[in-house]
Amino acid sequence: MAEQMTGAEIVIQALKDNGVEHIFGYPGGAVLPIYDALFQTEGIEHILVRHEQGATHAAEGYARSTGKCGLVLVTSGPGATNAVTGLTDALLDSVPLVCITGQVPTSLIGSDAFQECDTVGITRNCTKHNYLVKDVNDLARVLHEAFYVATTGRPGPVVVDIPKDVQFALGNYKKSANGATQHASYRPQTEGDSAAIEAAVDLMLKAEKPVFYTGGGVVNSGPEACEHLRELAALTGFPVTSTLMGLGAFPANNNQWLGMLGMHGTYEANLAMHDCDLMINIGARFDDRITGRIDGFSPNSMKIHVDIDPSSINKNITVDIPIVGDCASVLEEMVRVWRTKTNTSREDALKPWWKQIEDWRSVKSLSFKNSDTVIKPQYAVQRLYEAVKDRDVYITTEVGQHQMWAAQHFHFNEPKRWMTSGGLGTMGYGLPAAVGVQVAHRDALVIDIAGEASVQMTMQEMSTAVQYGLPIKIFILNNEYMGMVRQWQELLHGGRYSQSYSESLPDFVKLAEAYGGKGIRCSDPKELDDAIAEMIDSDLPVIFDCVVDKVENCFPMIPSGKAHNEIILPDTADIGSIIDDKGKVLV
Amino acid sequence: MNAKFQPTGSAYFIVPDTQNPEQHILSVIVDNEPGILARIAGLFSGRGYNIDSLTVSETEHEKHLSRITIAVTATPKMHMQIRMQLDRLVPVHRVLDLTAEGNGLERELALVKVAGKGENRVETLRLAEAFRAQVVDATTDSFVFEITGKSSKIEQFITLMQPLGLVEVVRTGRTAISRGPEGM
Ligand SMILES: Cc1ncc(C[n+]2csc(CCOP(=O)(O)OP(=O)(O)O)c2C)c(N)n1
Ligand SMILES: [Mg+2]
Hints:
The complex is a heterodimer of chains A (587) and B (184). Chain A has 587 residues and is α/β, with parallel strands linked by helices. Chain A contains 23 helices and 20 strands. The C terminus of chain A is likely disordered. Chain B is an alpha+beta fold and 184 residues long. Chain B has two domains: 86 residues, Alpha-Beta Plaits, CATH 3.30.70; 73 residues, ACT-like. Chain A, domain 2 (Alpha-Beta Plaits). Chain B is built from five helices and nine strands, in the order βαββαβαβαββαββ. The chains are: A alpha/beta (587), B alpha+beta (184).
């Protein structure tokens, strides 16, 4: 039976019926009726951010650490435009969000009314889908559909723009009878084609130099996908590497793990990708940070690609066996088919390949020259990892060198523990994302591994953390530079450091205290462990100003436009042990 | 450090597409909802695909379905990608590449205004007849012709009208359907 209520009440009811427990938002004129309905509601906690971009990233952190849909509520005009960065970020990293935006009354749309903007126009290309609801009787259906679209298939952000008069109007509320799954035109394909899966397994059974190249799709697909990946890796004995987005889907402490691949990935991961005879891409999208030079990308391999989004397949790299489907079901099927075809280990056949990989590993491409006078950023991440690895810990990052060092030197054995802005590379992501993660996991240790430049982009969310008693730890690798920019300028622009110095930095300790949090500074490697312990022990949000080497570069690095085997190694790499002469020439 | 010796100028490496571009006609069935055209057009402009022509109209009123015909020039690989990207849009029901299917039948309609007197006027009418163009408006010194057919035929007609006093042309753009008993 349909129930009569106001549009605003319909919104709240639909949120409840779709399992929403937390909203990240900011009020304003065009959403006041919804805030009013929220005021009279129990069971939904609203987190008041300090900037709408913060709300979107917080919702992303919340969604990625829980697997649930994040909910953002903002006003019209500037509220909506401020949310655009986070929506785009969520689109590129496939994060399920529903973002409700207020709009001026329907009669004023198009009149340049106060705080009017064309929200659906502006967000059309940065959302998976968006809606303007002009009739209150469409509202419930649209909201249920929004959750369905956001969370199914390849997840993504959905905007629902609701004019103020629709929020006031009386209309019918209908529960979603799970009928949304009968959508007329939107029907994501989740089951992989069984003939293709069979063909893929046949290739896997013959491969001598295989590699699993896994991505964020495995994490997005859920815990079962990660389980099946582990199972398949154990069965096959194949090495596994992953993109930045996929870290944690396969345990870093497993011997088959090669580390991350891509621009700043390990030597062994990138060379395995380059030299393999069979590449099995599970839920990754051949992004340009991964492939490097397309025409030099893994020239001699057969390629299998599993992706829930058909448009990801054959977009950048042409593959031999495309499989459209959800990672969990395809992996499960691969395991089953493998078992029906063999019960003997392929250990012997893979021996030469593993020997080769061990040689690459022995290069120690993540090594660096430590110092006892200045904190090396890699060392800082390593010490942080050692200090917290046995805890219930979640890591977010900003964007830059620190992000890559975090990916390289912090190790993840479980999915959904690592939240970073991969596709869009949004500086300012990490702090609000940490807020969102901590909202979902109150007792966990949530750390934003940050850069001093990025963190200033959304620093105001420190105030949100203090307000809600969210003891996030902001661990700033402070190199006084936009380090990643500086590194590129050093390597590619003749050392002309145009605008990349972090001038006039605030005193981060005082800043933390000004917000009501705790500030810690450390610049001596010998004091680092104690300082980290102090940070972990604090019940407050902490800003940790970790003063690190200003000019450390992040290696390995595949310069843009180069192939995987043109990787630049750190000075410390043990290239003497690379037996392959070809490799020697290249480093 | 060896890094200095491996400079590269760009953050991205663009591999030139070596395939030759060709024109395809796509038929797209969509929900006829506000903004749908902007959604399709925005996809094309946002991803850098070239639309040569686009026609749209509601074709199934009870279901509020529209059919969009898009002529687009791209390499074969891009055509595949364009189809996938269109298919990904939530209100898109079906995408069919009529050119790839090889059984497309296409037509375009144009209204062509020609002004002139005397000999030119006679010649204009004679050519119009040869092209099966209908006179839909006439004054003592002008005609408006309606002509339908393949775009190349319309193109040709317009070229012939040029020296005879062509004033202006409007064209619907190409619309297409598959041959045979099957629908989309
Ligand atoms: C919003 C935004 N603007 C600009 C950039 C380009 N950018 C990438 S990394 C970087 C420097 C980041 O500096 P910092 O946060 O100090 O990190 P570091 O590299 O020093 O570790 C910049 C400016 C970006 N990624 N995002
Ligand atoms: Mg920095």
